[in-house]
Amino acid sequence: MHHGTLVRWALAGILLAGASDAAAQDAAVSARAHNTLSDEERAAGWRLLFDGKTTNGWRNYMSESIRDGWQVVDGELHRVARGGDIITLEKFRDFELTLDWKVDEGGNSGLFYRAIEGPQLIYHQAQEMQLLDDERHRDGGSPLTSSGANYGLYPAPRGIVKPAGQWNTARLVVKGNHVEHWLNGTKLFEFEMGSEDFKRRVAESKFREWPGFASAPEGHIGLQDHGSMVAYRNIRIRVLP
């Protein structure tokens, strides 16, 4: 057997193990009380960004407070009425983030990362992981704007997102220029910010209109109000060394 074949098999085993570990971790979170952490997770550096009872730790983009369009309902953070995009009080540089989300039929929301304030709208600077009812929303017609995609830049594969009304688990890994998007235990893609491929994709998208797009080395985590009913729970983060 050729050495190259052994290496490819070894790499495939590592990738499969990584996906398996992520799926097992997501399943473990879903199996216990929501919005809680195990002792092992705390020891590993995980902490909650949503306590399941209040909106503490969150505020509206470009505001000091949070509108009442965002409410805690049965241990879940809901966009129940016009509430605007919200961000964490804290900023994060290198991190791993997981959360559960679901949208109503035709629903649309998004998860922003390394968001900074100053631009008129959060997406003028921050990248977005699309969270969507692919089946009924028009954005679901394109892999570039369907659920899990890095909106407008990196397409998501089909068949991973669950139907409207069902819980999905999103995972982000952001370290330096390296970014990974995961959905329901499956790695959708990875990319390097600042690479020639990344710069080309930005130049061919609407984001070319905003020179500061995706340039911040750290920033807030953001949740999008896109006019739809959406719910979140188990929002957890750990800072990476």
CATH architectural name: Sandwich
DSSP strand content: 25-35%
CATH class: Mainly Beta
What characteristic shape results from the CA principal axes?
A: globular
Number of domains: 1
CATH superfamily: Exo-inulinase, domain 1
Spatial gap, N to C terminus: 39 Å
Poorly predicted regions are 2-12
Number of strands: 13
Kindly provide the radius of gyration, computed on alpha-carbon positions and rounded to a whole number of angstroms: 18 Å
Tally of helical runs: 3
- What structural class do the secondary elements suggest? alpha+beta
Offer a concise description of the structure:
With about 240 residues, the chain is of the alpha+beta class. The chain is about 15% helix and about 30% strand. It has three helices and 13 strands, in the order ααβββββββββββαββ.
Notes on the protein architecture:
The protein is an alpha+beta fold and 241 residues long. It has a single domain, classed as Jelly Rolls. It is 17% helix and 31% strand. It is built from three helices and 13 strands. The strands form two sheets. Strands 1, 3, 4, 6, 9, 10, 11 and 13 form an eight-stranded antiparallel sheet that branches. A hairpin with a 2-residue loop joins strand 9 (168-175) and strand 10 (178-183). The longest helix is centred in the first third of the chain and has 29 residues, at 3-31. It is globular, with a radius of gyration of 18 Å. Residues 2-12 have low confidence and may be disordered.
